[in-house]
Amino acid sequence: MSSLLKPSKNHPNKSIVNFLVYKYTDYFLTKFIPYYKGVMVDLGCGEAPYKEFFLQYVDQYIGVDWTNSYHNIKADVVSDLNERVALPNNCANVVISISVMEHLHNPKRFLNESYRILKDGGVFILQVPFQWWVHEEPYDYFRFTPYGLKYLLQKAGFRQIEIYPTGGFFTMWLLKLNYFLARVIKNRFTIRLKLDKILYYLCAPIFVFNQLIAPLDKLDRNKYLETAGYWAVAKKIKGD
Q: In what order do the strands lie in the sheet with 39-43?
């Protein structure tokens, strides 16, 4: 990577169970480096794990989140992302949002607000899940296909939309298996003489092996059909 730091270096959720998720995150956030400049707004920043990475490229980083988050938020601006974002029009060169829109009951308003706070010529970078388990319930409302994403982004005013899958069939199913095993161990064995820790470490080779064979995705000719999620890049075109 050309960056000084890996994007996911400080992410608190990265573990032996899911490091492949963050390998993809590192890939895409590095791929999009040419878009980072000026003022960046991170909508749904949570604990702002990517802030240090982004500040290598942007002049100012503004994290936005709401007080009901399940995370220990480190937001510069507190705002409900289902409503008007507490930022002025045309204030950002780039807006980014990672694993947030599925948790919003008003995604249309969220995209409209993302468009509003972007400057003309600004770039919106979005990541959402597709075939992924329900999490942070009850605040988990939607899953998005690439066609649904493109439709919603266009309706909000965005143009030059590019959408990328987060892996294919094998990545998606093997990550599901890892998360399932981790949940079973936690839910069924936590109170039994701390068997959860023992079983977790016994399963560690399985967790790692499943993620190492993810290159089998090369057999999947259309990764868009069965993927863990999508990344999207869209622009606010001057005069639109």
A: 77-78, 60-65, 39-43, 92-98, 118-129, 229-235, 159-165
